[in-house]
């Protein structure tokens, strides 16, 4: 029987080098939403992503909320979103009083460009340069694209579709920091830097972490200016506290940024480890009938954030749910794909277009341990248990 050892799914890879930064925030008193590390972290992100400006925010969700607002999404508008994603990619649409329209995924779990184009061509009409949903008679303003598990979506196709239909593109790159394109029109560009606005997350399970926090980038400086303004409570006159609009307290703290400035310096090392462990898993899992490791897209350098195993019950002998239960019983943390968002209670009445492939992944996919400090020995233990559970 394989060794029993607790192996978490995805945990932070922290260094004691951060301590000096934290000490600085305490000694200076800058522990809240001001301080030098916020500026330093933003500048390091700008350099890494090769963008003119990055704006730190309280979370990836906050960044997505600001994104849909500054792009003009309003009450009674609609936004096309994926159903195979974490719900935080969708909720900001409803924060604005708009309605999501759910789209299926392709073989890479990212939004399916073919179905996106089919929906716009067959279920919508153009009226005075606006996309109108024939079913609801509402205007569709934008598309939210999520780079699921750090796997870059087909942005070349999606951007062409967006241009054809005058749609804004929000890139949810919360899982994809470090992923970029190695061929095609966007060769050399990072996920998050191609659409109108891109958003990153530094939640504890992300490839780098600040405990929480996020970052926004945009192709148009005025969008970031507006987002930054709204994120600090929309102070028209900060001295006399004048506010002409409703804003939010969406600022990153200096303590969070103190983590980020150290973490981003180690990002490429984290990705190298994740790629190495992915290759180890891939070679080993290929020898287990009934299991396969989902590939990352060609023409990209993915950050390999999460590893997705597909379970074929007929060949493996047990179904996805039983394997999930057995792994967690021996303290190997594994999880299923998120529940499809169009099936969640708040969104049962929303339009969903030809959802087929996404359901397949719900039924057959598990994520296995993938931390950036995962050891080769731990990879071997996970694989041995996968072999053990095969019937």
TrEMBL record:
Transmembrane segments: none annotated. The keyword Transferase applies. Keywords: Aminotransferase, Pyridoxal phosphate, Transferase. One of its GO terms (biological process) is polysaccharide biosynthetic process. The active site is at residue 206. It comes from the Bacteria. InterPro entries: DegT/StrS_aminotransferase, LegC-like, PyrdxlP-dep_Trfase, PyrdxlP-dep_Trfase_major, PyrdxlP-dep_Trfase_small. One of its GO terms (molecular function) is pyridoxal phosphate binding. The modification N6-(pyridoxal phosphate)lysine is found at residue 206. The keyword Transferase applies. CDD domains: AHBA_syn (cd00616). NCBIfam families: NHT_00031. Belongs to the DegT/DnrJ/EryC1 family. This is Aminotransferase, LLPSF_NHT_00031 family.
